[in-house]
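hey so u asked for the seq, here:
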Amino acid sequence: MVIGILGAGQLARMLALAGKPLGLKFIFLDPTPIACAADVGKHLIGDYTDKALLTQLADEADVITYEFENVPVDIIDFLNQQTPVYPPAKALLIGQDRITEKTFLQGLGLATAPFSDASSLAELQASMPEIGYPAILKTRRLGYDGKGQVVLRSAADLADAWEAIKNAPAVVEGFVPFDREISIIASRSVSGEVAYYPVSENNHEKGILRLAQSTQDDPMQAQAERYIHTIMTALDYVGTIALELFVVGETLIANEFAPRVHNSGHWTIEGSETSQFENHLRAVMDMPLGSTDSLGYAAMQNFIGNVPATEKLLSLSQVHLHLYDKAARKGRKLAHATIRTDSLEHYTDLISSLTELAKHSDDS
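ran it, structure tokens below
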């Protein structure tokens, strides 16, 4: 079977690496000539709106998926006329716009941060008495890894913040005084079979995920599963999906969902019986989903901008290095390392070692 993927970055690469043992072949469409997934499948180089290349992708693939949520929705509709595309276009449409997304989540009865549309500086200023400070101004579309986001601490910040996002349509969100940031990842097949992964506890800096730790028997697991199940059902979802959440006491606040495999689930490659990547492929092919049981204590450390010396990383026992074959650039995710061990003491030591190595290599 041939899997078509829109995008050929590291997520597409990891999908292909998970699919190779299953005998799957891959074809990618990506405008970047030197895409890091190009060496694990066929690479169609061109724009996502190129109808000729889209037709070729649909001709050669048995099913199509995507690695990021900024694919034009009309492209999904075009491809669907010939070849099934998962996750569904509805998930993409909602997930691309922060106002639409938060309205959708609230409509499902899920708590979110207070938010308001901000289409102009005047609208932003008018929203602040209700939203309050501190708050975060975010572009409605295209922002990720802290891009297109500005923290607002007082009215004096508003004009500069609006200029920083270049007058783009935006949402202003009230700050959530959270105890922890977590995410839950789940996979749902065409037939409706669902598998949930243990909750990840996440640490961010400058809006970029740095460390994600699997938390077996997390007290918020059942509630997080209810939240993500509600979303998947409403979307008639197929594939792997991630939901980012804030923990406030015994309550969960939904932040945003990603209709794709997710950075906070990279630890599942070594840390789970079946990775999020393999289960995504199983889901879109309507194959039985694999077990999501953990294989021990697991975590993932991102490397941003630079990667520590390979020798130093590989000298750490029970650490697994994943290089993305991407050119170094400030603020860019270049690699990650995962931990899997049965020893809690060793696990704690490894996290400390990886965090220290990442700190000294990070130029973001």
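The chain has a mean pLDDT of 94. The two ends are 40 Å apart (CA to CA).
lmk if thats what u needed
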